[in-house]
Structures are given as C-alpha cells and as structure tokens.
Amino acid sequence: MITLLLTAASLAQSPAAQPVQGIEWARAFTLDEATVFPMRADHPAVQSGWMVAIQLSADPTSMRQIEQPVLYIGEWPVRVLKRTPEGCVMGWVPSETLLNEPVYLGPNTLPERVTPAEAAASKAVAFAGSWRADAEALKRIIEANPLFGTHEEMLQSTARAACARD
Amino acid sequence: MRPVLIPLIALLTACKGGSSDIDKPITQPVSCEWSASMASVAPDTPVGVSIQSATGAFEERVLWMRSVDVDSTTGLSFALENGFQLFDVVGQDLGTSGVLDAGQHTLFVAATDLVDGPLVFTPDGVCTPESARWDLQARPPTQLAGVGQIEAPGFDYAQALNSDTILETALSSQHHPDRVGLAYDAYVVRHKSPEEWAQDPTLSDVGDGPVSTTVASGGPPANHNTLWSSDLVVDPGSVSTAYDIVYDFDQDGAFGSGDLIDGGAQPGFIAVRDLTEAGPYGTTTSEYSTGFWSTMRVYVPEPADQAFPLVVISHGNGHDYTWYDYLGEHLASWGYVVISHRNDTEPGVVAASRTTLINTEVFLRDLGEQGLTGVVDPHNIIWVGHSRGGEGIVIAYDQMVNGSTQFTEFISDDVKMLLSIAPTNFEGPDGANPRDADFLILSGGADGDVTGGVESGITQYYRMFMRGTGNHYVTYVHGADHNDFNCCGANDGAWGFSVQGNPPLIGRPRAQAVAKSYLLAILEGRIRGNDALLDYFKRGSEQFRPIGAEAYLATQHMPGANTDKWGLDDFQSGPDKSESSAGTTVTLTVENVAEGPLDDDNNTLSALISDPSNGMTWAHNDPNPERGMVFDFTAPGSATWALPTDQQDLRDDAFFSMRITQGTRHPNTVNLDDLLSFEVILEDADGTTSALDVTPRGRIPEPYERGGSGNGVGWVNEFQTVQLRLTNFSADSDIDLSRITALSLSFGGANSSALGRVGVDDLEFLAAPLEAR
Q1: The complex's ipTM?
Q2: Torsions phi, psi of B438, nearest 5?
Q3: Closest residue to B318, CB basis, from A63, A111, A113
C-alpha cells in the first residue's frame, strides 16, 4: 500500500495544477435496475449516484487517445458522457454523497484499468488540495427532484446538463 | 490461325532391294510422303505452349492451344509426354500416344502443367525424315502490359494501371524465343472471358492501335511499344475496367490458337480511376438510435438494389460519430452501407470494443425497422476504427474469435476485415490481436496524439500486427495528423513538433483523399475480389499510388500465413548474422550489421551507436518480438543469402518480397536526405546474375522530417514493401530461374544510393496464380 500511495502521489497533479473549478450542477438518481459501472477495473454493479456538470478551467482529459488524467469525485472516476470546448464536463458517479468529496484529476491511465485500491490511493493524495463541495455549495447546485428511472433516462438527462458559462 | 507451313522434305524412299533367298518371305517396302508443321516453328526447336487458362468447352480451351497440321500418305504415330495433351478438331482427346490415319489432320496441343516435354510424329513406313519432334515448353500466361523503364529489364509488368497512365507493352524474347522474327499486330481490347472469346474472337482495338511490328531479339527493350497514349478509359460507375492485350501472330484480326494474350483467361490489366471520385450510387444519410450508446449515423447507397457489405466506423476518444461523413458518403457511393456509431472510448479501449460489437448487433437486428431488409449483407462486415476505436475493433474481433463474447446477429466469420486509422495500442500485441483477419493500419507522420513514436508503447501501433495471421497492410502518410482523418478534431499536427523539424502538414483534404482512395482500394480488392487493386500496397508508392492520393507515402503488404510462400529470412530464428532463418549462409559486406528485435531501445529517436534499432516500433515490451536486421553503407557492399538447395527452382514462385526502411536520424540517412535506392540480384548455378534496380519500381522513403523525441530530425522508421516479379529477372537475361543459388541486396554501387542506413525484414518468395506471374 505504501508503494501504491507513493506512485499515486507522484503521478497525481498537484493541487495548484488542478483545473477543477467546481461542480455546477448535480442531481441524484436511483435506477430501476443495477447497471455496470465501466470506469473501474472491478466493474461494480451500481444503482444510484449523482449526475454532475463540472467546470474545469481547461480540459486536459478531452480529445486525447493516450493515457490521460482521470477525473474523480472521491473514489469514483467520473463517467463522462459529454464535454464542451469551454471545459464543462457532464457525467455521473455512483457515489453515495458529494459532500466534501474531492473533485480532482488523478494519475494518467485508462479508467477501465483503475482498481478500487488505486482509486482510494488517488483520493487520499488529492484530498487536501482539491475542490470540495461543502453543505452551502451543495444547496446551490443540487437539483431538487431526484431522478427515478432507467439507466437510459439517466444517461439522456446527464447529456442534457450544462455548466453556467455555456 | 493460319499455320505457316514449313514442309518437311518428303522423299519417296526406294525399296532396298529384294533378297535373292527365295525361301525368305518378301517384305513389301512401305514408302510415304508426309509433312508436319506447327505455326512458324520448325521441328527440333523449342516451342512455347501457354498453360491452359480456360476450363469450359473445347471451343474455349482451344484458344490457348498450339495447332499442328500433319499430312501423310501413311499412318502416323504420335507420342507426347509430361502432361501435354493432343486434340483433334472436334475436341477429342487423342491420348498421349496413338496412330493417325493417313490423310490431313489439324491437331491442337494443350499444356496442363508447367513442364517441358516432347511431341513426336513418326510415319508408319520408311520415310524421310523418319520422324518430327518439337520440344514443347509449357509457359505461364504471358505478361504484356506494364510500365516502360529505362533500367533493366526495361519493362515492369503490372496488373493495375492508373487511368492517367500511358499504356505500354513489351514481349520478352527471352521468354518467347520461338517468336523472334515473327510479325504480329498488338491490340488492346476490352477483356473477355474464354466463353466470350469463343463466341466472338474479333479483335477490336480501343487504344491507338493495333500496332504492327515484329518480335526482335534483345528482350523487352527491343520489343516495347505504346498501345494507348491518352487516358485509359474506365467505365462510368466502375472503380476499374479490365482489358486484355493480344498479340495477333497470324494477323487475321481475331484471337486464336497460337496468339498471345496478356494474363490468360484473367484480365491482362485493369485501368483504375481516381479513387477519390464518388461512385455510381446516391447516398441517403439518416440517424438511428435505440439508446445513448447505440446511436449511429447511417449511410445507404441509392438505389438500394442489392445486399451491400456493411462498414462500421468506430470513432476515437473525444471524437464524435458525426465526424466521418467524408468516408461514409464516399463508401456508400461505391455500394457499401456504412454506419458511424457513438463509441464509448472514455473508459478505455475494451469499453470501445464493446460498443462496436453492440452497435453492429443493434443495426443488424433492426434492419427491418429501418426499412433496410435485404439491403445489407450480414456476412460481409468491415470494421473501421479511429484511434482508441482503431484498437477497439481489433479487441472486439479478438474476443469474438476466442469465444469470450458472442452475439446473435453475426459471428466472427462475418467480419472480413479490420481497418484501423492511427490506432492506439494499450493492450499490447496479445491483448489486441487481429488473429486471422485482414488488417490495415492507416496513419500519419504528423500525428500529434497517437504519434507512432517511441515515447510510449501505446503509440507503437504496429505491434498489433505481431500476433495476426491474416494479410496485413500499411499506408503511412507524411504530413497527416491525427484529426485529419475526421472532420472536426483538434489541430494536433501543431502539437509536439520541434521548430527544427517544422515539417509540412498536408491538411484534411489531402489526408482524407488518401484515406478514401486506399480504403476503397482495399475494400474493392479484398471484399469484392478485384485483387489487382492491392498493387497499391505492393508496388513502391513513389511510383504507383492512387491518382487522388497526393501525398508522400510508405506502404506495406505483408502476406498472411495462408499465403503460398516460403521464407528466406525473417530473422526470427538463427540469431547468427551469418545464417538465415532458412538455415543458409548469409554473406555481409555492408557495415555495422546488427540483428535483433525491431524495438527502439531507449525511447528517444536520437541516433546512438548503443541503439542499433533506433526508430523501430514493432516489438516494444514484446516477449516474442519481431526481429530484423540493420546495417549501413558508405561504399559498395552487399548482403547475400544462399538459397536452400531444395528451394532453388523459383519457377513455381511469382515474386520476391521484402520490407526495407531507412534508419531514422542516422548520419548516413541525414546525409542522403533523399529516398534510397538499391539493387536486388539473383545468381544461378552457372554464376549468371540478373539485377533489378528498385528505383523505377519505387525507392525507399526518407523518414518524415519531424523533430522532437531526442536530438535530430526524422520520425520513426517507415518500412516499404518491395515486391519484384521473378520473371522480370529473366525477361532480358539468360539466368536460369530453375537453379537460383543466391539472392543479394546490393548497396552503394550501380543504381544505388551512395550511402545509407537500412533495416530489412521478411525476405520471402511468394507464389501467385499463374495469370499473375
């Protein structure tokens, strides 16, 4: 574990370099049926979480084919569905809560290769310097009515999201 | 065919006188007059017989036979050997020996195997001469169309010609010594099948001709004529149009026995149009979606009058399924249904592979809902992937073949070809294995994303060839960047170049013209069976590339495991530099020879003595690496391979093939600063040699002049396939292809660059259908 932490620490971007400016929109969801989360190597079955729109100052995760920094909320890589040239990233995470969860760029890799242990290590490294939503922020960004529906409905809703600057 | 009779001197042989011994029976002497003639060929000389090209009725097969006229006052015995056949005028097979009745007979000799053998006639009596004999030589279908060259052997025979090419023809008097001195009319005509020739043998020239001339001794340079000096006509709506060249030796204006026809029953050559032009079909474009990850743009040929092959396009990371109209519309116009689907590349290449599979399944499942029942051939699927999508399609095929995933609408055998544009290779050669599929990689030297460079294994996409057993192809485009192959991605060509290099970028229109023409060529070649179009990968791109592909290219054709071929040296075994993988001696007089994995050792392109494989990108982190040989030269030198004793008869082979690259950033390459030339030399058991200069067939590209990744300028090593027709070695030489003892690559001397650094791999001999030899 020590080795793992060191590796993650060496690869994760420093807080000063983090381009995450914040979550601008969030909506909770609960699915009719569990679905596979493809952004981790263990492919867990998940049934609830958060749809989010995250504003980045620049988007180093877009347009490239090689290994790139993985965008996380807490221990979950964000399942990105759409992004805009202005740095708005729409996606979802099967996280129970957004409160105080760091939003950050982790080490370069493919999300489908991230193990739970690596995700936890990335979170530990990123925790101190990353953007996090406090209770006040969450009041401002969370949409009031959660989505209860199918996986497809959640995807379509996420893809329609937007950041304030767009 | 009107035979030119050369009558034998027929003498009445007198009785030798009776015996005075009246107790002995009196033998009545038989005297005779007889003659036998084969068109224009005297007895006791070799005569070529084209190997039988037709398989139908006798009226068709007889066109490829040689006629013999005999006339005798007595019975006439005949005998022939080694698979030759003798027919009478109604097509009755007379067997290998027999007796003909007295009288006149027109007979036809057919060759069924590439062997020599005698044909002997012997009259039944005491006649002079006592017999007549021809030494029959079965010959493969003649090559007549090609490209004129100044260098030996003065002519390069070809199966495919661009329509803007001047059509030239040449006959090798070495291959047809029995034709020397004979007059003929040379025609270029629309291709006909044997059945069509039998129905109407009339020759109707469509070029400048016919050209009337006489066969001279001296090989192709002495028998070289222009048949069509304006643009070759390609039928509207066709990728290519097939033609034959016929040498009409009896000058009767008809194709018949004893005439020569290019390519036998197959087309002599095809004229190919500008492959960037739209095809004959209109295109209907629509959107179809059954869910977020099963969303696609669909391009359908109009009128949709048949079941078309299906092309599935899988985009790369951060790309969009709407970015490939240029390719979808182009291929649909040539009769392919195309879908470009939303691809789930964000998690990685395995997720992308899943999306390719699901979208293929959904589209085929829902053909009825889309009104496309009967319009798609579900057993003829081609996957095209870009970037992460380019690796995803290979993983998808791999998973289907190994059984780890299955679908209901199609099976792995339905996927005929994988076409990857600038693919990643996250999974290495074992994780992304094209297996038995035909596989093309198209990529650009100015790619700022999947650079093809040595900085990471992910970008070394040629590794994906390493476990595959199908036919492999490469088109490498100088100046094309990653997103030149879609409409709307970032201008990555501006990423990561050094100021020092500053290579020219060709931009989207030219890069996409290359993509449209090479992808159409390989689809038409492999899916629709127009094999001659594969010449775009086999012949040097400097000399032969599609009309619309205006770019500096390196191309490769690596024949698959099912190809009829044998390897002289693939460097996979026999690490001793002086021994080939075929177990024969290798003699090296070039400099700084090293043999080993084709893997850059230090992840930079700086030219270092410690890294002889600098710039090689075929074996990164591969436990079973592709291997090759590198060396350089500043003076005349050679690499010479002895041929195995059991492989010295090359008459059953068609081509010598190899891959060769310049060594990037090496001082010799930098100083050469040009494409590289050399000679390939064959030597027979008598010490006779014949050399072919690669220059008129396409020199070896100079590495793309891109900076970065260490010191110097020049990007990764670019292998180019060199395939030389073996009959070209004997077209103007006495070399005996049945007894070849050595093959040499000659550098630094005649017809060669003065200096250079090269890497070589996969020296092998390829068989081919007789018509293509």
Answers
A1: 0.90
A2: -65, 140
A3: A63
